[in-house]
Amino acid sequence: MNSRFKNISILGLALICVSAVLSSAQTGTIPEGYFTVNIAAGTGTARTLSNISFPLQGIATASGQMVGTVTAITSNTITNSNAGWIAGQLSQVATPYLLQFTSGAASGRTFLLSTTTANTATTLTLDSSETTDLTTLGIIVGTDTYQIIPADTISSLFGTPATTGILGGSIPSAADQIQLLVGGVWIGYYYNTTSGWLQVGPSIPSGTVVIRPDAAVLYTRLAATPVSLILFGRAPSIARKALVSNSSVTYLSNYWPVGVTLANSKIQNTPGWAGGSVSTADILQIFTSSNVWLQYYYNGTDWMRVGPPINSDNVVIPAGSAVIITKRASSAGQNILTQPLPYTVF
Amino acid sequence: MKRHLLSIMLVALLGASHGQCQLLTGFGSLQINPFNTINDFLQVPSPWTGAVTTNSLIISGVSNSSGGIYDVLPNAVSITGDTAYLALSGSLQPPNPNVNIFQITLYDSSYNSLTYTSNWSLFNNTLSTDFIPLTASSGAFNGTVSSWELDVGGNPGDTLSFTFNSLQSTAIPSLGSIPEPSTYALVAIGLGLLLLRQKRRKTVLA
Question: What is the ipTM for the molecules in this complex?
Fold first, then answer.
């Protein structure tokens, strides 16, 4: 299993807390270390919600060039003629991978690799869920670079009751539950003590469901104890480009292991973002430390609270959390949100 | 004379008791703008559904996709008593939401605030009053409530249906039910007894 979480009890003293390193806003190397994800305790009978994301990138250990230069592309493949990958190693269902462009016009775009079309020694195929035509992204062959990152899955992130302390159960109502926004629909999952991770409802085995870096998880904890999970990895070192739906809901992670203010999030700069009056503006929700959702909108100049007209430019999206974006438009498709690094890597 | 003094003290005590609880809003049809769309009048924006009646606010919806409720009071209320608790009268219709927490925030005209945090599990489907403790504040609240807000903590898909009847500031939750017209009734009874005693004394003396 490609587990990035360990129980806090095995944390080694030599590890570096990435958020602490980045709090100085400048760092000489890309920090690697750990980030603590906190899941609040339920009561044993009532659930408590935690809004969590995973702001460190895993470090790939597969063979071949995990960082390299693109030598050819098609609509859904990239080639590195010098890659030296082991055929099929980057296409395993249990250990999926992501491809992220790290320079050029597509820098910051991230794509899931296929687990049904095996990689070759030199070519990677994108997952069928990726609808972007790579040839439209302005990628310069022979110049632009990429990195390969392990993709998180439900199993790799949340493990089992024995390994992480999550609460499993024979039925969903007896277990902790997580919810992911998949294709605009909220889908629930829980750890079945007989069958492992299952989708709530149809009971589909779901341990290998990918949780993308731009996505987040709503975790409802039933057990009366909190869970502290340690995420190992590397802080993002380039600006990200994330997809925001043009209509309906996007559940967007805070990609960075540091908090980001609404003003600095640049979400308001997403093409097609509706600002202006509260009655027509797009809405963003933040889950507060007191466990309720507060709503914000961009009035064209500043972020404001929905309700009391309080300037909220400096409201922080905490590290390891996420926002829910609700677009009022009804147009199809997605737009690209470009977010700059909130710290300097030199 | 001694008995007169006792009666006066009783009246004073009742008056003090009443001062501990102060009505902020009754949630009835005279309330304006009960939702977060400014200047709407008795509107229930989707996905919330519901209505304002003569004495209550009845709401159903899907909790965290609904946003909160924000209400500018028609007339600001100066709190003369304690702000340690809010007494919220209302009821919760089944099914209970999966996630329990909600909070109510009081704002003054400069949006300094007092925030009170509670759990839906304290309510049931019959009218009851629960005391919600102050859990946070922001700025220097000036003692006058200009607006209030409800925020919820649920999951997408959690349904939530509730009725709010009154919101009061209060000091001592162990007092139990909130003095309403009954306070004045007790005062009236006390004065009535006093007058009756005076009358009886005059009759005996005669």
Answer: 0.78
